[in-house]
TrEMBL record:
Phylogenetic lineage: Bacteria, Bacillati, Bacillota, Bacilli, Bacillales
Organism expressing this protein natively: Melghirimyces thermohalophilus
Pfam families per record: YycH
Residue ranges of the TM segments: none
InterPro entries listed in its UniProt record: YycH, YycH/YycI_2
The protein's name: Two-component signal transduction system YycFG, regulatory protein YycH
Signal peptide extent: none
Domain Regulatory protein YycH per the UniProt entry, residue ranges: 3-445
Amino acid sequence: MKESLKSLALALLVLTSIVQTGMLWYSSPSNQGNLPKLQHIPTIGHKDFQKEEIHQLAAPSEIMLHHDGEHRRILPGADHQTLIDRLHHARLENPQTIDPSPAEWKKWLDDETGLELRFRHELPVEVIQAFFQGETEIPELDTVHRIWISGEGDNNQVTVWLISDQTQTVVEGTALLQNYDEMLKLADQAAERPLKAFLNGKEGNFDEEDLKREGAVPRFVYLPPNRAAINRWSYNLEQKRQINVEDMKMILFRNPNNVEKTAISNHIDIYTDVDSSRSLRYNEQNNTMVYTNLLNDTEQELPDPREKLNTIISFMNRHSGWTGNYLLNRVETNQDNGASDFFFQLHVKGLPLYGSEPFPKWEEIRLSAQQGITHYERSLIFFSSRSGQKHPDHLPSGNEVREALKKQNADLSDVRQIYPGYHAVTRENKLELEPVWVVDFYNGKQGFLSVSQTGRDVEWTGAKLKPS
């Protein structure tokens, strides 16, 4: 009986303690206002544009199909992505430096059937390794500009050339590509009309002397014999979409409610968190933002560009940050801190977009990463690619390109590369994406060639003087 009374008394004491604790907690001032709340991360782009792997984000802006002396271009799209994904399943084996003779270059250009992946700029060799399976080390190369793949499909084995135009170096390896014949059939279906090859200003029918004069690694330019049909796109300026800076605060700061805002001019605000490691500079006038995280910047350097790109992919996918089809354009060394800056260029209907009018930086996103993102720079304006209106247009023919270059006191021998793109201009409350040939000169200057609005002439914009 005594034991039962003791148990009952103990239970009453415990119950009384719980009730008193609850009353004390209920009557005390709430501290929740000082605690960070779990925030919903806004998403700003469409899931169709998000990339999962490096080879998708670093895909080349064009693939050339070479067959029986014909050269045809494949631009980014569904078939282009399928070809890149199939290449990603291959393992590069036995890479070694070679010195191809002019006869070998001529054979590749005139006789071999294969694919050439052409990047806009030299990319770190580690990024190129991500296109293949495994961790095969590639000797004697720091950067790669082109990948040539050739073979008859025997046992699905192909020859791979990794080419650096910058250092005039070629590394040869082999790879097994499953269903290589099917890849070539898909490429044939996806490729555009045949183009003419130019070398140092000369058109086609190159002999070994032409290739010898060009140097160790010849650079070919491809242009159409006639005007190439292509669509021009127009968007009403009212159709533009704008990312809310408040959403970017929620994305970029751990506790958006504890961020200080400082106005440094009539149209520029800077947001900083309590420890001042993160800052967001917002320009309301031109709708651009620059985010920096100094804390991440002081962490240990990630030596491999692949690790940095994987960090970027995870970060951007977390908030669906790709508001269009952005592809890696170039990697530059930051002169202030030695870090690698990655620049991603917007592609519309398969073509790279140029021209910041009237929205600065909207065609390019810049990102840097260590253990986390250290720099994020972009426009907060974008357009839905589905909202545009298309109009038939053309790109100038090869002869028109050469004549236009002559008027600029230049010729194809001054040109590092030439490729199709879109140039953005505004007319009558509309944003026009004009098809152009993008002309990159050896000295770093750039110009654009387009058919005039009347259709009778060719117009040149950009660099005006002969490269020196």
